[in-house]
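Below is just one:
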Amino acid sequence: MSFLHGLFAGAGLTLLVGAAAGYFAYRRLGRLTERARQAERLAELGTLTGGLAHEIKNPLSTIQLNLQLIQEDLTPGHPAYSRLAGRIAVCEKETSRLREILDDFLRYAGRMELDRKPVELNRLCEDLVDFMLPQAQVQKVKLRFKRTEDDVIVSADERLVKQAVLNLMINGLQAMPNGGEMILTVSRKGNEAAIDVIDTGPGIPPETLSKIFDAYYTTRKAGTGLGLAMTRRIAQEHGGRVLVTSEQGKGSDFSLRLPLR
């Protein structure tokens, strides 16, 4: 009797465990299905908006060309030369700005095809420091780089990772218009490689911190607000992420994390 009781109890436990596993598997399948649907909707939206942006660029190019032709035909002897030349210059500036906005949008919304290769992150950051050093010196920002003793290699699209880090560096320089210090570091964090861009700017208010990676969100007059959003998207396309910590009055630390090989 006790044998049968134990047998039924064991069978009941097995059924309970099986039911629980089935429930959690069903929940996980539901989440994956919803993610797939969302990704499909976003892909469709990206295709539509990308097509619209291309359609806008075509007449915009025609406008820019005609503005140049008008400017060439306008001679200093014209009685309204200074007034018309000023207005043409404003139109050219604004059409160029609109084209830059469209180009940034197409890069952000378009499909990313990763050309993955082994990338050594110390070398990548050294290249970016050399590239940004003249701009940092103009802004009186001391730019330093701390590398690891050994190589840190990830499987990534080098061009896109450079763009992601460059966006973080530009963001840091913009936070220090009156000078300061920027530090780049490469390190390992568990199964991730980390590139940290640290600045000594004013820091980010807590109420703003949750919005800074949103597309088109910016607190500055210049720029499109796509730099940090693009960095996050590049990280996610590589299976990585971007973290940020900030303290007002001391500065911010943006950390790009990528899976190690």
